[in-house]
Amino acid sequence: MRKSKKQIEMEQELMEKERLEKEKQENIEKLADVIKNKKKVSSTGANAIKKKIFENLVIAILCVIYFYVVLQCSQSFETLSFLFYLKIASGILLGLSIIIFEISYRKDNDSLAIHGIEILIVAIISLFIIYLYSLFVNRTFVTIIISISFISTIYFIIKSVIIWYKSKKKDVNVRDDIKDIVKD
User: Fold this and answer.
1) Torsion angle of C-alpha atoms 6, 10, 11, 15, degrees rounded to 10
2) Which end of the chain, N or C, is more open, meaning fewer C-beta atoms within 10 Å of its C-beta?
3) What is the DSSP string of 153-179?
4) What is the pLDDT of residues 54-99, one digit of tens each?
5) How far apart are the C-alpha atoms of 122 and 21, rounded to whole Å?
């Protein structure tokens, strides 16, 4: 049985449609792979993000250790000795924050300036602890110091998450060439 010319044309059209549909599906899959790869953070970007987060976690650990030492000293030393050592520690932290501000100004480094602000806040809290100690020489003082330690830890964890999110988004946007393609 012979096929008519019309049937042959319809079969060819159908085959062409299937071929185009298959090609379209392959292009969609390729595009999806390209988009998926563009959303991943590059290895250099990932290393920079890890470095920033590591810095923040080290500072958080140092803050917790500092407040733990303050708490232990408040229970170990006499009141006058404890207040004297706390004033010295506050002065050292204030000096350290000033030095960090100067270095960040010379290098024009914003993240270093933020670390200086954080150390300044710890120094101010240390000065405030002197006043708190004279008000609460009992269990309330311990609770306050532990609360300050937890709040500082939560702050640095939230800061690390924000750094991770913003850095990842920035790295993906830098590698994104869709804006350049749209401009052309």
Assistant:
1) 150
2) N
3) HHHHHHHHHHHHHHHHHHHHHHH--HH
4) 888 898 899 999 999 998 988 888 888 988 999 999 999 999 999 9
5) 64
